[in-house]
Recover the amino acids of this structure.
C-alpha cells in the first residue's frame, strides 16, 4: 500500500523532516500547516522539494471549526478555506483535512453541518480539490466516525469524504466494525496511530502520547481488517503526536515509523491469510492489496551466549567475579583474545581483542555487555528479516575455519547474533575455542540457564527498543510498570516470546540517579544492566556464592519483618531467606525466589532466580528493595 506520514510526527524543520521521510523510503507526506507556515520555502518550493525527493503530497491539514457555525462566520470560514485552496494548488496537495468543530458554542444541527460541508466541497471541487472530514474524539458535536459519516452522507458531494483516524476511534472504544458499511469511494483518507492504554483526558492523550503501530496497545490489525474489507485502497498514513518523538533526532524516529508500518502490513497480511479458509472475502483482498511480506520471525529458543567487552584489567576482574559465581573458565579463542566461561547452559564470553568490535565498544562505554547470542531455528532467516525491515546487519572479522554467525546491529549499537540449531549441533563453540576439557562445565553454584536480561534505555530510545524487540525478535510487551527507586521512578516493560524462552525487561528512567539511570549514563546510552540466571536450588546457590566471596546485595531486616504481613509464609523458610538475603514473591501462578550480586563497576549486576510452578513475573514488587540497596551503596 502507499505509505505516508504526517510531518507533525517528527522533529526538525520542514526541510529536515522531508529529507528524513524520503530517506526512510516513505511514498508520501501529509503536510501539517504549522510546518509550512514556519518554513522559509514557498509552497511551490516545497512542492518541488517533495518532487525532487520522490515524495507525494497526499494531504494538507488541519482545517478547524468549519462546521455548525452561524451564517456570518460561515462566510468568513469559506473565505479562509479559499485561501487554503489557493495555497494547496500551489503546493500540489489534492486533499484538505477538516476536523470536526470543537467549539462549545457551535450549532449542533446535522442538517446545517451537512449543508455547510456541501458548500465547502463545492468550492474545493472548483479547483479539483477534495475534502476529508475527520471526527476528533473531543469534537463538540461530531466525535464518532459514524456521526461524521452521517454528515458526509447527508452532504452528498463527490468531493467530500471521510478521514478515518485510528486514534479517535479506538481511544473512545468505538466499534470499528461499522466502517465496513461505508462505501469505499467515501473513505478518502486513513490516519494510523497506536497509543498506550491511559485513563486521562482524550485530547491530552492524543496530543502527547500517541505512538507508532506496535508501540502501544491498540488493536490496529483488527481495525485495518475492517478498513480493508470496506474496500479502502488509499494511503496508510501515520499521524502521531508524541512529546518524546518531537524532541528526538528525526532520522531514528522516521526509521521506526517506517518499520512500524511494514510490521503492521505484515500482521494484516497474516490475519487475512488466516481468514481465507472461512471467509470468502479474504482471498480477493490478499490478491488485490499489496502488503509487505518479509521472512518469517525467528523462533527464538533462549540465550545461547552473552559477550562482554573489557580491557585487560576489567577482563581479569570480571573473570574472577565469574569464577566466584561458579563459572568455569572452559576455553580460549583460537585466534582472538576472548575467554569462555560456562556453567550449566550459560555461556559467557569475555572479549578484549584489540581492534575488534568489542574493543571499540569498550572504548566508548567501558566494561559492558556488547553482544547477545540467541538460539534460533534459522539464523540467516532472522537476519534476512531484520534487513527487510532496514535493520543493519553485522559481519565481524572471522579467522579461517571460524564459525560465521549471522548478526544484526541492535538499537543500543550492540550486536545480536542468531545461532541456528544447525550451528549448535555442529558444536560452534569448539570450532572457535580451544576447550580445556571435553566434559560439559560443572554447575558449581547450581546455575542452569539465562532466565532474563534487563536493558536500560535512554528516554528517547525506549519506543525504538520496544519496536525492535517486537519486530525483529518476535517478543510481545507485557504491561509496563512503574517502580520506585529512591532517586526517581523507573518504568519497566517486560517483553517475552511465546514459550517464555526469551525474556527481556526494558527499563527507562527520567532521573540520572536511579540504578537504571546511572547505568545508562555509565554506558553512554542504553545497554544490558542486569543478567538473571536461573538456579534449581536458590538456597544452595546463595550458600555457594556467600562462601565464594561474591558481594551480594544486603536486604534490610524490615523487608523480612514485613514479608509475613504480605504472605502466609513458613517461619523456617523466612529465616533462611533472611540469613541469605533471598527475596520472595508469589501470585496465583506460583512463587519466585531471587537475590542479587552487587554492581560491577556501576554498570551491570547478576541476579539468581528460582521460579516455582508457573510463576511468569520478575519479582517486580521487590525491585524497589533492590534499588534502595543499590542506591545506599552508591551514596556510601
Ligand atoms: O489534535 C488535533 O488537533 C488534531 C489535528 C488533526 C488531526 O488529524 C488529528 O487527529 C488531531
Ligand atoms: Mg487525525
Amino acid at each position: 500500500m502507499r505509505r505516508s506520514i504526517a510531518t507533525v510526527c517528527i522533529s526538525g524543520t520542514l526541510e529536515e523532516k522531508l529529507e528524513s521521510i524520503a530517506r526512510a523510503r516513505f511514498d508520501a507526506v501529509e503536510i501539517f500547516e504549522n510546518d509550512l507556515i514556519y518554513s522559509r520555502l514557498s509552497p511551490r518550493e516545497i512542492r518541488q522539494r517533495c518532487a525532487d525527493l520522490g515524495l507525494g503530497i497526499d494531504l494538507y491539514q488541519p482545517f478547524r471549526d468549519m462546521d455548525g457555525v452561524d451564517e456570518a462566520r460561515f462566510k468568513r470560514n469559506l473565505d479562509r478555506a479559499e485561501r487554503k485552496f489557493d495555497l494547496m494548488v500551489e503546493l500540489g496537495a489534492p486533499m484538505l483535512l477538516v476536523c470536526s468543530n470543537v467549539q462549545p458554542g457551535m450549532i449542533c444541527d446535522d442538517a446545517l453541518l451537512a449543508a455547510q460541508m456541501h458548500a465547502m466541497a463545492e468550492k474545493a471541487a472548483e479547483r479539483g480539490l477534495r475534502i476529508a472530514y475527520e471526527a476528533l474524539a473531543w469534537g463538540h458535536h461530531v466525535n464518532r466516525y459514524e456521526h461524521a459519516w452521517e454528515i458526509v452522507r447527508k452532504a452528498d458531494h463527490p468531493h467530500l469524504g471521510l478521514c478515518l483516524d485510528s486514534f479517535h476511534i479506538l481511544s473512545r472504544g468505538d466499534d470499528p466494525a461499522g466502517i465496513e458499511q461505508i462505501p469505499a469511494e467515501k473513505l478518502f483518507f486513513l490516519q494510523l496511530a497506536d497509543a498506550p492504554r491511559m485513563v486521562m483526558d482524550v485530547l491530552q492523550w492524543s496530543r502527547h502520547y500517541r505512538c507508532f503501530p506496535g508501540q502501544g496497545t491498540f488493536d490496529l490489525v483488527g481495525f485495518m481488517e475492517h478498513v480493508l474489507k470496506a474496500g479502502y485502497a488509499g494511503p496508510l498514513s501515520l499521524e502521531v503526536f508524541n512529546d518524546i518523538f518531537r524532541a528526538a533526532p528525526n532520522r531514528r524516529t522516521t526509521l521506526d515509523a517506517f518499520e512500524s508500518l511494514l510490521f503492521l502490513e505484515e500482521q494484516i497480511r497474516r490475519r487475512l491469510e488466516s481468514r481465507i479458509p472461512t471467509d470468502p472475502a479474504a482471498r480477493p483482498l490478499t490478491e488485490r492489496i499489496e502488503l509487505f511480506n518479509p521472512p518469517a520471525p525467528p523462533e527464538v529458543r533462549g540465550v545461547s551466549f552473552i559477550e562482554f567487552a573489557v580491557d585487560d584489567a576489567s577482563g581479569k576482574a570480571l573473570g574472577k567475579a565469574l569464577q566466584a559465581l561458579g563459572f568455569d573458565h572452559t576455553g580460549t579463542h583460537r585466534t582472538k583474545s576472548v575467554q569462555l566461561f560456562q556453567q550449566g547452559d550459560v555461556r559467557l564470553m569475555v572479549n578484549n581483542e584489540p581492534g575488534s568490535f568489542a574493543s571499540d565498544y569498550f572504548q566508548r562505554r567501558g566494561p559492558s555487555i556488547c553482544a547477545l547470542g540467541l538460539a534460533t531455528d534459522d539464523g540467516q532467516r532472522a537476519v534476512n528479516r531484520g534487513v527487510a525491515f532496514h535493520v543493519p546487519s553485522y559481519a565481524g572479522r572471522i579467522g579461517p575455519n571460524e564459525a560465521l554467525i549471522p548478526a544484526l546491529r541492535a538499537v543500543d549499537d550492540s550486536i545480536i547474533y542468531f545461532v541456528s540449531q544447525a550451528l549448535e549441533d555442529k558444536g560452534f563453540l569448539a570450532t572457535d575455542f580451544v576447550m580445556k576439557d571435553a566434559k560439559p562445565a560443572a554447575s558449581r553454584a547450581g546455575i542452569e540457564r539465562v532466565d532474563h536480561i534487563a536493558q536500560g534505555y535512554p528516554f528517547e530510545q525506549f519506543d525504538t527498543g520496544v519496536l525492535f524487540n517486537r519486530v525483529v525478535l518476535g517478543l510481545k510487551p507485557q504491561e509496563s510498570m512503574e517502580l520506585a527507586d529512591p532517586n526517581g521512578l523507573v518504568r519497566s516493560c517486560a517483553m517475552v516470546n511465546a514459550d517464555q524462552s526469551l525474556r527481556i525487561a526494558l527499563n527507562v528512567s527520567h532521573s540520572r540517579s536511579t540504578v537504571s539511570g546511572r547505568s545508562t549514563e555509565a554506558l553512554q546510552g542504553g545497554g544490558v544492566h542486569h543478567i538473571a540466571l536461573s538456579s534449581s536450588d536458590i538456597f544452595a546457590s546463595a550458600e555457594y556464592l556467600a562462601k565464594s566471596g561474591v558481594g551480594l546485595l544486603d536486604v534490610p531486616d524490615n523487608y523480612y519483618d514485613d514479608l509475613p504481613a504480605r504472605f502466609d509464609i513458613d517461619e523456617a523458610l523466612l529465616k533462611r531467606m533472611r540469613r541469605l538475603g533471598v527475596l520472595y514473591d508469589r501470585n496465583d501462578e506460583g512463587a519466585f525466589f531471587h537475590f542479587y550480586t552487587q554492581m560491577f563497576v556501576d554498570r551491570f549486576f547478576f541476579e539468581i532466580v528460582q521460579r516455582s510452578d508457573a510463576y511468569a513475573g520478575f519479582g517486580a514488587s521487590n525491585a524497589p528493595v533492590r534499588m534502595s540497596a543499590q542506591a545506599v551503596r552508591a551514596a556510601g
Q: What stands out?
A: The chain has three domains: 3-288, 294-444, 445-636. The two ends are 58 Å apart (CA to CA).
